[in-house]
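Hi W.,

Here's what went into the run:
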Amino acid sequence: MIEGKLVDLVPFEDDFAIHMETWMNEEAWFRARLWERREPHTEDDVKKFIEKMEKSERGALIGFQSKDGDPIGGVIFDHEWQRVRKADAMFFAGDTRYEGTDEHLDGLLMLLRYCFETRNLHRLDASALAFDEVRIDLLRRAGFVHEGTLRQHIRYDGDYVDVEMFGILAEDWPGYEQKVAALDLQPSGIEPKPKPEKKDDKETEAGEAKS
Amino acid sequence: MLEGLLVDLVPYGKRFMENAHRWANNDSGFWAGMGRREFVTQAQIEAEYREWRESNRPETGVAFGVQTKDGKPLGYFGINFLSYHSRVANLGANIGEPDYWGGGYGTDALLLLLDYAFDTLDMRRVWLITMTLNERVLRQMEKIGFLLEARQRKATIADGVPYDVVVYGLLREEWPGRVAMIDRLGLRAR
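Here's what came out:
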């Protein structure tokens, strides 16, 4: 675990995976994974995605949760290019109640912290659909610099939408502590989701009832 | 086969593979790989080729070999990856024979590939990236009418120096067609 101001980074365990089938079918997911075809994700697709990220040598899927342990979503670094020490930065609030909150922003800041301060990367790339003001605002507040626009790059809801390109260099990053102090992050006060019942628990209970 | 004035685009088959090892290890790899210098063995090349043959082409991309009009293999030109639903194709190229740089061979190949992307695959946008050190490609982009869409700061390193990576895009309505472009550029068979 790496502890942040409003969120902590944790391994993407079952308490996250259990939400992933819902999360990967939300519109927010497709805005975050903007180059992917927008198609329904079955339980099996979700499992394969998580396994792919677990096996990846050039990336990782990391969970981020509120201070009281409520799973919010995931941060991903991917396509790490070792020679240049750069990677693609991706982040999503699967629990859409957190969309655009300071917890969502802190998830992104924690990804930057991990990539720059622990993994010693030199640069991160990020992109957003031109109409996705929430994502663009989060990227800018995190310190990403707008570096250009790919015209009519993605088919989305009947339009060919521009993609805004962003980048941040290690030298742009003041360090997590300074960044958080400057942004004055405030908790949103969103109530934690009820913990879903675990399958194992049910089976145990059923077993006990029988005996 | 796509027939040009100076080159033809043909399937990237065995004749090209026989040269791929040399091309991967010479200066062309440096330019195509934005500063990459690698030591690639014959076995690695063959493994990559097998993997590539088994991948889901042409859903994911299209590879052509570039050869002179008398059949000498020069390198690779192709679509690295594409999206049929966004109708966007990312282009890549490597003229592996340095003697053929600057003679219009790459430009001729690119015009064939653009026609193929727009008219055959019905793409509505093509794009590519290079590093700012690669002035030959920057000039080519200007000449053909690509728009500089993004500049990614220090996104690669070449011989110890960080360079920006530039993204160029061309929309179908900006493409006058191969014949008009040949005329505009004054490209001639020889």
